[in-house]
Amino acid sequence: MPIKEVYAPLKSAELFKDWASKQKKGRPRKRPHSFEESVPHKVFHAGLNDIISGKGLVNAQLVAWRHFHTDAKGNHALVEIKIGEKEDEHILQEAHFGPMALDHKSLLPKLKELKKLKDEDFELAYLRIFALRINTIWLRADQRDNDFFIPIAPCFNGFVAGQLYSSPDFLKLAQGAAQRFYQNNQARSREDDDFKGG
């Protein structure tokens, strides 16, 4: 199961390269990052209404590109370049350092060993569903029904960090969590109304 090589837009790649060069106290990097080093991948956000309604991730929005970085001392980072509102606008958003970045990158070789993933090539992506506190690696197949997900710790709503979920299993859990979230918010809203009225 090779990860499909998907390259970030030039402006995102340039911002990442500029950020990386500054991590070495101003000394520019002499060689370019290879795909295997930086593994540029898309970041998507999904809305709660689509999850509740059963639409799944058809409307998930591409919001950023992420790049892996390892400096000369072996420190790991995930660098996120946000896509702006204007066409072809990219903004350096944040860098995540430490074990989380290493955990993400170290997952890639492990994916090749999973039998369920042997028959197809996948595009590596990252998905956030903020309201449900879901952060997951999203392995995107040519058909959305063939996608797989690997949640990242800390996990909530019944998800297990590092476990491989098929698209139907992932969406079923997410939909249940979204419905509970909606019901809890409705109940809180009624309690607030009762409190104000009482």
TrEMBL record:
<protein>
    <submittedName>
        <fullName>Uncharacterized protein</fullName>
    </submittedName>
</protein>
